[in-house]
Amino acid sequence: MTSKYNHQPIALEGWDREEQFRFFSTFTQPFFNVHTEVDITPLYHYCQRHQLSVFLAYLYVTLEAARSVENFRLRLQNNGVVLYEGLDLSTTILKNNQTIAFVSLPYQETLLEFSSNARQIINEAKESKNLFIGYQGADLLHLTTLPWFKFNGMEHAFSVNPQEAGIPKIAYGRLEVLPDKVTLPLSVALHHALADGYHLHLFLQQMQGYINAFSFVD
């Protein structure tokens, strides 16, 4: 399996998650899925002021949060576990012919850099005939957005087999824009051999922190 970022193997014997890993690795369907929502009000208004895509902005803070939580960088490999030092993302986009493509968007340090780079990649992808565009490896997040209707959760399509890398799968629904609050519906699926609900809590906590930071940015 190819990878962009360096990774190191986790010694399973004596690992804090050894028993959980061995238990959940035997499951036919080892992912657990949680449906929630995130208050993105500061990020939304920042994007409005600076004419930035809210879609790209919430992808950016998602990636930042996932990179900061170690369990979101764990992957299954060769019957073991590896930890990647970084992550990019792969998201679905709707092409001009109304079919989807899986588009890889590399990490950038700032929202402005990420938005500029991603916008160019997505515009080109909309004209492509390919299903997969850009780098596709284990050191990604898998993201998708359903912006057309009210969203209370989503079960992802995926193949469960020995080659499944345990990549986190995140879906977003239509924004709810109220006079004093903007919320983003969010569904997160994690491989239970690699993460528990507590690690999802850490991810959401980090994501909210990145969002709230835009309250203090002009």
TrEMBL record:
Pfam families: CAT. InterPro entries: CAT-like_dom_sf, Cmp_AcTrfase. It comes from the Bacteria. This is CatA-like O-acetyltransferase. It comes from Rufibacter roseus.
